[in-house]
Automatic annotation (TrEMBL):
Keyword tags: Cell membrane, Disulfide bond, Glycoprotein, Membrane, Receptor, Signal, Transmembrane, Transmembrane helix, Transport
InterPro entries: RAMP, RAMP_sf
Recorded name of the encoding gene: RAMP3
The organism's place on the tree of life at top rank: Eukaryota
Highest classification ranks of the organism: Eukaryota, Metazoa, Chordata, Craniata, Vertebrata
Predominant place of localization: membrane
Keyword Ribonucleoprotein: no
Family label: Belongs to the RAMP family.
Places the protein is found: Cell membrane
Gene Ontology terms describing biological process: adenylate cyclase-activating G protein-coupled receptor signaling pathway; adrenomedullin receptor signaling pathway; amylin receptor 3 signaling pathway; calcium ion transport; cellular response to estradiol stimulus; cellular response to hormone stimulus; G protein-coupled receptor signaling pathway involved in heart process; intracellular protein transport
Entry's transmembrane regions: 118-139
This protein's name: Receptor activity-modifying protein 3
One GO term describing the cellular component: amylin receptor complex 3
Length: 151
């Protein structure tokens, strides 16, 4: 019994250490979070200043900076007792996206069906092969029965 009582006080610092950034039970200090998040935005803006503007749409050029920004917003939200992500933090992150990535367009390839000359064989060949293989299995199984019976 004493060992269990001794372990509890030792677990408390460990839990506090592991959960140092956990939201507090007292609730989210939204005002504090809105005061702290711009620090993350400024740090991100300073880091993005090192990247040429024409490379801003290439995520591989600044992924480390963006990860740092994301971690910063999460840490600041947790410090003031807020969960992350939350609507206020998402709004802030969206404003940063508008500031830096508004000119980045996604060149989406429009997917279209292939022409009928290609599509029809791609449909018919597997259907015919499936029917042929099923017929071959049935024919082979009937033939084996005949061979085993001897008639």
């Amino acid at each position: 019994m004493e060992t269990g009582a001794r372990r509890r006080p030792q677990l408390l610092p460990l839990l506090l250490l592991l959960c140092g950034g956990c939201p507090r039970a007292g609730g989210c200090n939204e005002t504090g979070m809105l005061e702290r998040l711009p620090l993350c935005g400024k740090a991100f803006a300073d880091m993005m200043g090192k990247v040429d503007v024409w490379k801003w749409c290439n995520l591989s050029e600044f992924i480390v900076y963006y990860e740092s920004f994301t971690n910063c917003t999460e840490m600041e939200a947790n410090i003031v007792g807020c969960y992350w992500p939350n609507p206020l933090a998402q709004g802030f992150i969206t404003s940063i996206h508008r500031q830096f990535f508004s000119n980045c367009t996604m060149d989406r390839v429009r997917l279209e069906d292939p022409p009928d000359e290609i599509l029809i064989p791609l449909i018919i060949i597997p259907v015919v092969l499936t029917v042929a293989m099923a017929g071959l299995v049935v024919w082979r199984s009937k033939r084996t029965d005949t061979l085993l019976c001897g008639n």
